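Slack export, channel: ligand-projects

TW: morning all. Re-posting the request from yesterday since it got buried. We need the structure predicted with the small molecule present, not the apo form. The ligand is flavin mononucleotide; the SMILES is in the block with the sequence. No rush, but it would help planning for next week.
GE: picking it up
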Amino acid sequence: MTTSSRKLDHIRICTDKPVDAIDRPFQDLVLVHKALPEIDEDDIDTSCEFLGKKLRAPLMISAMTGGHPDVKQINVRLGEAASRLGIALGVGSQRAALENRMLEDTFSAVRDVAPDIPIIGNIGAVQLKRYGPEILERLAEMIDADAIAVHLNFLQESIQPEGDKDSCGVLEALKSAADGPVPIMVKETGAGISREVAADLVSAGVKMIDVSGVGGLSWAGVEAFRAAEVGDGELEMMGRLFESWGIPTPVSIVESRAAGAFVISSGGVRSGLDAAKSLALGAGLAGTALPILKPATKDKESVINVMNAYIRALRITMFLTGCREVAELSKVPLVVLGRTREWLDARGFDLRAFSVYRELAK
Ligand SMILES: Cc1cc2nc3c(=O)[nH]c(=O)nc-3n(C[C@H](O)[C@H](O)[C@H](O)COP(=O)(O)O)c2cc1C
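GE: finished. pasting the full token output, ligand included:
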């Protein structure tokens, strides 16, 4: 099966099947309500800067697609919507366009409709290793990218029949890439990044990490559906067994921040409230993918409506926590409950750093 046609399989399964997590780790986080916000809602400013460009809100549409003629229109709608909203956009893996130049316009069309926003290119770590760091310049030129995300998806590769399971030398390849002229970020795809891995990445020169943790789309789940369709019972079983494998997104934010990276929160960010919680945990930006896919198969207005609701909820959260600016969210008292608390406790983090000390420090 070609990279291009596999892409269509993934989009079809992600739009038709229940591939989103049922457990929502963001529900373990409670921002402490401020009954006396002492700000005028009209003064709230949700804007921020990302990759040297101004965003209307600290949000991005995460990497999804491109690489097949049938999905070009989806990318165009995402580009138009992100441009209208003034938020960042990641394109899906550009691998298919490296294998077949005719597919380049399924990616470059995004920049044509979104000249001013940050656009992030995308390639798998295994492909980076194979093609070498020089490939990043070609990928960046294709879409006039502001940065390239190198994705890690070894969970998916393990369950995929055609998966590439040789991860040797990936860190070295990332180190060479980080030394090059194209800004890079490293991105998981639904299984999260630990403090140890984040520390390795930071030591290799990687400054931005998109944690993409557990709590949203499960690629093992997607591959389980694919395996079932071709009657591969054993792979289907593996997909189900590893459906929830990985590090929950809120945990992964704290772990990656502890290593000193600029963190993008993704994986189950399902509202502007989840985005605000991400920023309170230390992320600089929050991204979402799956909730945008179906709207993008309809029209750009549907995408705009979903993302406008994110911005509105973010604004309400800022009001109710007394934040005039986005950066202030990182100082809002936050209570961590349930399984997320147990995770972070077990990993040695002092949770009072989020709940008690902040309030005292204010
Ligand atoms: C249809 C689809 C295709 C995706 N393709 C890519 C990809 O090519 N590269 C990548 O880094 N992530 C890809 N992702 C993963 C997302 O960028 C994101 O990390 C993940 O879906 C978790 O976010 P969510 O829970 O908001 O969906 C894809 C997600 C979806 C739904």
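GE: first-pass observations. The chain has one domain: 3-361. The chain has a mean pLDDT of 96.
TW: perfect, thank you
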